[in-house]
Amino acid sequence: MTSRISPNAATTATETPSTSPSPPHKYGYVDTHAHLEMIFEKLDSRYEEWIETVRAKEQEKMYTLDSVLTIGCKPQNWRKVEHYLQFPEVYGAFGVHPLNASVWEEHATIDGLKEMHRKYPTKMKAIGECGLDYFVRQDPNVVDAKERACPLNCRKQQQFVFKEQILLAKELQLPLVVHARDSGSGDAESDCLDIMREHCDKEQNIHVHCFTGTTAFAKALLDSFPNLKLGFTGVCTFKNGANVREVVKATDVDRIVLETDGPFMAPTPFRGKVAEPSMVPHIAKVIADVKNIAIEDVFEMCRENTRELYNI
Fold first, then answer.
1. Of 24, 35, 21, whose CA–CA distance to 58 is shortest?
2. I want to staple 131 with a disulfide (CB 3.0 to 4.6 A). Which of 27, 61, 168, 178 is the partner?
3. What is the pLDDT of residues 179-204, one digit of tens each?
4. pLDDT of 119 strictly over 80
5. Ramachandran sector of residue 127 (left: φ over 0; alpha: ψ -120 to 50; beta: rest)
6. Alpha-carbon gap, residue 306 to 113, rounded angstroms
7. Which among 104, 102, 158, 161 is positioned nearest to 134, based on CA atoms?
8. Residue 255 and residue 227: Cα distance in Å, rounded?
9. Please, which residues have CB within 8 angstroms of residue 70's CB and are 6 or more apart in sequence?
10. What is the domain class of 27-310 according to CATH?
11. Distance from first CA to last CA of the chain, Å, rounded?
């Protein structure tokens, strides 16, 4: 691997060469999926204070946070998410999460997403997250696991809302952020793949975020869509995350992007804390270990993958 140490400026014969070492190259990274409005509600802090602290901590480190893609999951919180677009390193994706599919109003929701794109043509980078989530019914009083599985009428609504957002992403020529969470039966993976194969363009830029599915599902997605990337979160660092590490192992690094999905699933050693973008390097380290490559290569390749996916 070639050295990335910045060369010293040329010296003249009368100058005394500096004996100070050149500063190390900084490897940039992007948290490609975070929910900033939730993060700072939980931290009871402001973004401005947090980013200053992050920058101070990065002074002596080999990596630096380049950008964050924050996600608006339903019309009711788009305005909160919009607030963060004022910061130069923050970009946004807006859509309707499958667990919010019941709030979809066909014309009003589509018009709202189009308006966000008109308002922020360079800051809104994607439609989503959208997709399928068959894991639980949103009813905490239902205890039985089988009863908690997403019922058929809920699935039909999710499928419709997913399809509509795929079509809108194509119309606006924006990448698509996909959420696919199974109940254990494989139904969500199968349905998600069928819908994507029917409605997505083959060359479409797609980010299947927080990937926790099967290796077979990952392979089918990657084979079907050459510009699709898989996002891995802190789950790959968990003791019980062996299945996710198997997918990482089977996935070429040029198809991987880094994300926290903060405030959820903080990576080891921060389990139980609020996940936030500066924790991404811990995810990169585990990916490097699993792939048996240098963490510098993970930073570089995943950073380039993010440019290809989101133009960030």
1. 24
2. 178
3. 999 888 889 999 999 999 999 999 99
4. yes
5. beta
6. 22
7. 158
8. 8
9. 34, 35, 36, 37, 81, 84, 90, 91, 92, 93
10. alpha beta
11. 25
